[in-house]
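hi! just following up on the protien thing from before. the input was this:
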Amino acid sequence: MEDLAAYDGIFVVLALIILASGFIMLFGNLIGVNKNWK
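and the predicted 3d structure came back as:
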């Protein structure tokens, strides 16, 4: 049980990092497009 909980925590952290990096990339692209259009 302890091992499963540890693995779940690691996967949750990895998932959050992937989602955060994805949102940062999307927002960065949107800001870049806005700056280019202006």
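The CA atoms of residues 20 and 35 lie 22 Å apart.
Helices lie at 2-37.
cheers
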